[in-house]
Structure formats: C-alpha cells, structure tokens
Amino acid sequence: MSVSNSNADNKDLNLNNNIDKKVPRHLAIILDGNGRWAKKRGLPRLMGHRAGLRKLEEMVRLVKREGIRYFSVYAFSTENWNRPWTEVQGLMSLFRFYIKHKVKEVKAEGARIRFAGRKDKLPEDLLEMMRWAEDETKDENILDFILCINYGGRAEILDAINNLRHDDKFLNKDLNIDITEEDLRKYFYLPDVPDPDLIIRTSGELRISNFWLWEGAYSEFYFTDTYWPDFDYDALKAALDDYAGRERRYGGLKK
Ligand code: FPP
Fold first, then answer.
1. Residue 163 a catalytic site member
2. Which among 193, 50, 54, 57 has a CA at the least distance from the CA of 114?
C-alpha cells in the first residue's frame, strides 16, 4: 500500500473522511506491548520501543489518510517513572530523537504536534525541544498529533482544580460558588481538543491505566491482542470498522 507524504495531497486525503462512514474525530491509542514484542524476539526492551516509534510514524500518515482530525497517543505516563532508570532514559532519548529528526516530516503532512502532560520531572532540554516542535507546527491544521508524555488523568484533573483556584471567577471568593464542568475543562492541558471518540489499547490488556480519565467518559473502547509494533493498516481498519458499527447513546436511549 502506498501512502503519500506530499502536502499537495492533503486535500484529496481529507476526502477519505467520507460522509457515509462514521470516522472518529479524535482517535486515541494506548501504545502497549513494545516490551513483549521485543522479548518474543530475544531483543532488549528498548528495541521494542524503537519499533513502536517506527510504527507510530507510519500510523500518523494512515490516521490522516482516514480523515481523523485528532490523534493522541499515550507515550509515557506519570507512573512510567517507576520503570528502570535505563528504560526511562532510553524513552527520553527516543522522544528527543523523534523531535529532532521527524518533526519536519510531520509538518509536511500538515500535522500540528501538541503535548499533553505535566511538565515537571521532564529534562529541561527535552522541554525546550517540545516547545520548539509545538511552535514549528502551530499553523498546521490537517491533523493534531497529540503526544501524551508524563501524562496521567488524575494528575490532569488535579492540576486543573489547582489552577482553577487562580481564575478570576474564584480568586479571593469564599468557596460557595459551584464549579461547573466548563469551568474545569478550561484548565485541562488541551481544552480545545474534543473528547476521544475511540480509544484503542493494544497488547491484550483491558485497562484504561489513567489515560484520558475525564475526557474518555463516553469514549468507545477497542481492545486488540496485537502488540503495538505489529499494529498495521489492517489492524487500524478493523478498529475503525468496529467503531463505525457502534451506536453511541451518551447515557440516552436508542434512537
Ligand atoms: C508500553 O509498552 C509502551 C510505552 C510505555 C512507551 C511507548 C513509547 C513509544 C512507542 C515510543 C514513542 C515515541 C514517541 C516519540 C512518542 P510496554 O513497555 O509497557 O510493553 P510491555 O507491556 O509489553 O512490557
């Protein structure tokens, strides 16, 4: 299958967002199974993460081709700091590598890179690169590619509450004003990004693991046994076809 990289094709590619088929506006993926993929091949875990990164590069193009507008991936959770130091450092180096060498390609696809997560604990040079990547791609509007790094759903909700206290509406007031969902949402990491319509988790685990806790309240879930580095176009299509056949009721009744 050939996938074009050229900017000139952006218009045609968007036509794939055909009106007959229900396509998620926001697709989120929990990238899982890199370690097991590597182990199965007798390789170090970091090789699994490298293979996972290559897969992600391919997936950005495929996702765009399918007409998806927002694509978010869980690349490093607030709990992943508990992994061995060498693995954490290896992942940080992969993030650096990606930003340094791949942002231009992503930009050529018309994709805007954004990050969601806590900024504390991340190395200063990486934070600098992240800011650069966001700035470099800020005018792209075919796809928002969201990397959740040092992200945790509970942390995001807590951060929002703590930041909301400084909002003019609440500052220096006694706390008898009710906080609404809209008040809180303004303080999420990416308040303008719509909630994920579909969350895919690879590798056979059946958990949310602190990903998009608030935003995923009405997301559809799709689980596959495939390890992330093996997740290919057919696997993506299977998930999207499954989603297209679902009826979303948001707590209401069947129409
Ligand atoms: C989970 O697999 C995967 C991760 C914690 C890291 C995901 C990161 C990448 C695919 C690299 C992404 C790079 C960028 C730039 C976003 P696991 O290690 O938990 O696998 P296991 O459950 O089989 O051990």
1. no
2. 193
